[in-house]
């Protein structure tokens, strides 16, 4: 499912898009289930353990910006995480042993859709090694106009940037202080059914959806089986139950990787959107394009 040159591109740039990984039946079913979740959001008025809501959400006009840990709430998303096509790609990029770290579905409504400020996933969950990546399963065609994820190539081999504001973790980098050229960012675009793979240390973000088409992105985070979270493992059985390839191990592999802990915790918990509300300087706020 992944070519040698695509593996090389991932190693070089920290991101690659592989086309048509999700088959048509899985894609149709995933869209149906997401529609059911959105319909169910009409009954909620505030963020829950399942829903993170856009400003302006209402029963008459439901606006969901995130469905949290979907693999826990519907079997389909656990099945996709273990699908042979996806697992084969993960093993090519991470090695024989692979563990699911987490999942979410980010939704961007037409002419709306909250942006996500520049950040590194590594800032949220550092491990004993950085053989970790995120998979973006495109449930809609992803374009620059509808808020596709933007990634800065080669930043996965650079420093871990500060994601704090006023001394507290905020889940966002200061775009003025970090010294990066964001014009170099490349969009992870593709037709529905394709998947993006980006390294846990790659700097990325996304702008508001300025198109008339929705953008629904199912996201998984996967780690090598011997990468252990520095925050600890409170439930070993649950930790091991998320193995999708290979065998569990109690021997963490230690690598010389830069780390900044996400402490003290963000004043606003719940999702990256809430975390980033305390960021002092923003890149995507009030921007109408992804560039």
Automatic annotation (TrEMBL):
- Note the superkingdom of the native organism: Bacteria
Q: Does the keyword Oxidoreductase apply?
A: yes
- Cofactors: Fe(2+)
Q: Does the keyword Oxidoreductase apply?
A: yes
Q: Which Pfam families match?
A: PhyH
- Leader sequence range is none
Q: Which InterPro entries match?
A: Phytyl_CoA_dOase-like (IPR008775)
The UniProt keyword set, sorted, is: Dioxygenase, Oxidoreductase
In Gene Ontology terms, what is one molecular function of this protein?
A: iron ion binding
Name of this chain's protein: Phytanoyl-CoA dioxygenase
Source organism of this protein record: Inquilinus limosus
């Amino acid at each position: 499912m992944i070519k040698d040159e695509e593996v090389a591109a991932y190693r070089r740039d920290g991101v690659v898009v592989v086309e048509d990984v999700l088959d048509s039946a899985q894609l149709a079913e995933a869209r149906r289930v997401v529609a059911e979740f959105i319909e169910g959001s009409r009954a909620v008025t505030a963020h829950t353990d399942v829903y993170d809501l856009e400003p302006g959400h209402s029963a008459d006009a439901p606006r969901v910006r995130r469905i949290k840990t979907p693999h826990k709430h519907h079997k389909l998303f656990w099945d996709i995480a273990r699908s042979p096509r996806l697992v084969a790609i993960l093993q090519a990029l991470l090695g024989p042993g692979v563990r699911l770290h987490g999942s979410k579905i980010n939704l961007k409504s037409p002419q709306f859709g909250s942006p996500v400020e520049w950040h590194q996933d590594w800032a949220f969950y550092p491990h004993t090694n950085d053989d970790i990546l995120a998979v973006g399963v495109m449930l809609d065609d992803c374009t620059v106009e509808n808020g596709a994820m933007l990634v800065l190539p080669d930043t996965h081999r650079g420093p871990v940037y500060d994601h704090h504001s006023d001394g507290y973790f905020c889940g966002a980098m200061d775009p003025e202080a970090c010294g990066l050229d964001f014009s170099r960012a490349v969009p992870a675009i593709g037709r529905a059914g394709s998947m993006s793979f980006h390294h846990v240390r790659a700097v990325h973000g996304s702008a508001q959806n300025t198109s008339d088409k929705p953008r629904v992105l199912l996201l998984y985070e996967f780690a090598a089986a011997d990468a252990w979270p520095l925050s600890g493992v409170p439930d070993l059985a649950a930790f091991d139950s998320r193995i999708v390839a290979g065998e569990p191990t109690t021997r963490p592999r230690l690598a010389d990787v830069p780390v900044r802990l996400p402490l003290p915790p963000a004043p606003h918990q719940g999702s990256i959107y809430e975390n980033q509300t305390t960021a002092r300087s923003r890149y995507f706020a009030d921007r109408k394009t992804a560039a």
